[in-house]
Design goal:
With 94 residues, this protein is mainly alpha-helical. It has one domain. It has four helices and no strands.
């Protein structure tokens, strides 16, 4: 019985570690690749509030990148982008 319970717990941990949520999706650092990278599926799974924050982040980084050459840091996930936008907006008093 213990082996069965251990096996089920281990299998559950493995499956949960392998499943990626939409916030785990990595954003391409080049805005030209945003439409080609399959982001749409991940974005559609976000809450409306998270979609708004991600959109604001992508616009800000896209415009900022065009003006300053600064791009989204390599390996940034959707979840990280949402958190960065929350911090940015809190600092702007929005």
């Amino acid at each position: 019985m213990r082996k069965l319970v251990f096996t089920l717990v281990a299998a559950g941990l493995v499956l949960s570690a392998c499943s990626k949520g939409p916030k785990d999706t990595v954003l391409p650092s080049d805005p030209k690749q945003w439409s080609e990278s399959g982001l749409k599926d991940s974005i559609e799974k976000l809450s409306p509030d998270d979609r708004k924050l991600l959109g604001a982040y992508m616009i800000r980084m896209g415009i900022g990148g065009a003006l300053t050459g600064k791009t989204i840091p390599e390996g940034t996930t959707i979840g990280q982008a949402i958190e960065e936008e929350k911090k940015y907006e809190a600092g702007q008093g929005q």
